[in-house]
TrEMBL record:
It comes from the Eukaryota. SMART domains: ANK. It holds the Pfam family Ank_2. This is DUF3447 domain-containing protein. Keywords: ANK repeat. It comes from Trichomonas vaginalis (strain ATCC PRA-98 / G3).
Length: 373
């Protein structure tokens, strides 16, 4: 059934899956065309939204950093301070390991010692995205967060299978718990299977799988019950539910896979994807709220598309238009934040509160003007 729902949107799903696995020596022309014609023109994703996802892809597929810079430039986004990201030179041992040059690696270690913290991957969460620019200086000004990888973890992260097995068979390296997590990013099946002999996937693994659009691995994990459905709920350590990452990084395939395994799990948050309208039409929808007290109307207003909002008000579903989430936000506030003028007009026509300070502030800080409402 989920396959039927997904079929009309395979272009959307495959666009993001391709984005996260671009090779460093691959032309980006095809990817740029897909982003323009499919994601921007057809599905109306914003540049800011795409930039956020492309930066995540850069972090997960660090060997292709230059290609992601080209893709960002193609959508009119420049990265400040890109040169400050530490990227290995071609004659370095780090570059050798990244690209799995096993013979060069063997020559190197016969004469040199490897440091414990072998490779650093920047965690680019604290960045500023403006209309045409990504400012990495926020990352550099604050406490710099990095993944500090050991040699064997680096092999797992980049899928360097020949060096990985050389290390565990000839050099007696031990597979760490983090190796499994990084192997899911590196996507080498042999390394993943070797790591699974020692460790089980955890919530960190699940988050990386979802954020990186590694949907074949998500399907594999769901089929084998590696994850519980509670794993997708709010994490009181990071304070972010994995389903929020599904929305943030637009992993539509994950929505359909979860629907196939547990229909109730995707409600109400699936409404953030306009592509789930047929599911919403065919399921028994209630005014269910999530752990942040958001209902389906809140989520339906989180995209520029108002089709689900229209359907909800034309249906027999009883929804409180002025329902506040735990942050005192109504559906109107989310519609304004996402510049969804149609949704704003629909909400106002159904009696949403407008004349309060929070509502006016949200609308005034969006591209929507009261004069247009």
């Amino acid at each position: 059934m989920s396959t039927d729902y997904a079929t009309p949107y395979l272009d959307f799903i495959k666009a993001f899956e391709k984005l996260f696995i671009i090779k460093s020596n691959e032309s980006v022309e095809d990817m740029c065309n897909i982003i323009t014609n499919v994601l921007i023109l057809k599905y109306q994703l914003t540049k800011k939204q795409l930039a956020q996802i492309i930066i995540k892809a850069l972090q997960y597929n660090y060997a292709s950093c230059d290609n992601y810079a080209k893709i960002l430039k193609n959508i009119g986004m420049e990265i400040n301070d890109l040169s400050d990201l530490r990227f290995p030179s071609e004659d370095s041992i780090e570059f050798t390991v990244m690209h799995d040059h096993i013979d060069k690696f063997k020559d190197y270690i016969s004469q040199n010692k490897i440091k414990d913290k072998f490779f650093k991957i920047p965690i680019l969460n604290n960045i500023q995205i403006k209309s045409d620019r990504i400012n990495l200086s926020y990352y550099y000004r604050g406490k710099q967060e990095n993944l500090n990888l050991s040699l064997i973890e680096t092999c797992a992260y980049f899928g360097s299978v020949n060096i990985f097995f050389f290390l565990i068979s000839n050099q007696k390296y031990t597979i760490s718990k983090e190796c499994l997590r990084y192997s899911l990013i590196g996507r080498n099946t042999d390394i993943i299977n070797e790591c699974l002999k020692k460790y089980l996937m955890d919530k960190d693994c699940l988050r990386d799988i979802v954020c990186s659009h590694n949907n074949s691995m998500l399907e594999f994990g769901l089929e084998r019950n590696f994850f519980t459905y509670n794993d997708f709920e709010r994490d009181y350590v990071t304070r972010t539910a994995i389903y929020q990452d599904i929305i943030k990084y637009q992993n539509l395939k994950a929505v359909f896979l979860l629907y196939e395994n547990a229909k109730d799990l995707i409600l109400p948050w699936c409404a953030a994807f306009p592509q789930t309208i047929d599911i919403i039409k065919n399921e028994k929808i209630t005014d269910k709220t999530d752990l942040e007290n958001r209902n389906i109307l809140h989520y339906a207003c989180m995209s520029p598309n108002s089709d689900i909002v229209k359907f909800l008000f034309n249906s027999t579903i009883k929804i409180d238009v002025n329902h506040h989430d735990m942050y005192s936000m109504t559906a109107l506030h989310y519609a304004a934040m996402n510049n969804n003028l149609d949704a704003v007009k629909i909400l106002i026509s159904h009696g949403v509160e407008v004349n309060n300070e929070l509502s006016r502030n949200k609308i005034n800080h969006s591209n929507i003007k009261f004069s247009l409402i």
